[in-house]
Amino acid sequence: MKTIGLVVKADREAQQKADQFQEWLTKEGHRTIRKQSSHPSDDFGNLQRSFSPPDLYCVFVLGGDGTFLSAVRWIGDQAIPLIGVKFGEVGFLAEATEDGLLPAAKSILSGNFTTFPRMRLNVTVLRNGVEIKNESALNDVVINKGALARLARMKTYIDDKYITEYRADGLIVSTPTGSTAYSLAAGGPIIHPSVQGILISPICPFTLTNRPLIVPENVRINITVSEKSSKLMLTFDGQIGLKIDALDTIIIKKSRYPVHLITLPHQDYFDVLKAKLQWSGSRI
Q1: pTM above 0.85?
Q2: Which of 42, 43, 55, 65 is catalytic?
Q3: Fold of 3-119+258-281
């Protein structure tokens, strides 16, 4: 008997499919632990975070990329494999479709799969030199200004060497996995997940020479914001947020704990990329 985790989007179609899948798993002799995906929150103080049990064989995620990122937060730093089943609009993190759920499950439960480690970012926030938050992110860490706020001014250092002060609507620091998320919409490049680097992408920079920058995976990125900036929000994978100001220092580096994504036989990253971006007439 295997213990299987299910993280399900708050959507009627996904919930119905999860009911059927859970019934099938039970008939096959497996135990399931089911969780509905959590909603994004900007209130750390009232955030009740729970973690998955450590004995999960794997986690099936029925939903879009937001649901998948919620599942990643649920497993924390544990090396539990995950597989996404697409129920969202654009699922870059999904390995299977709704129609392919049972064939994928049979393959996984029989051990016919591999895992691919995806880099995560570790983020520490210091306020007046005291740590107030430590989080991880699979996709990205984003500094955003409010709708009516002035340009954000963000001094950026790499391994304690000053690089530049970005004046922009915000700044995205992403992993290769996150290069197809918000960073892509902001004009950043697509980076293959096996390329070990960190991507820094300004959002609508005031200075046109501020372009996306790829740095080695082993660097430490320090970011501080100017007193002239106001109403700034730091978000982690679009799941949780923290208000920041000039008293804060944001330290970003590669996490020691990657996320282990399940890869099925005959699946190819470029095939998925072509389908999601509709290259050469491909359809999602």
Answers
A1: yes
A2: 65
A3: Rossmann fold (3.40.50)
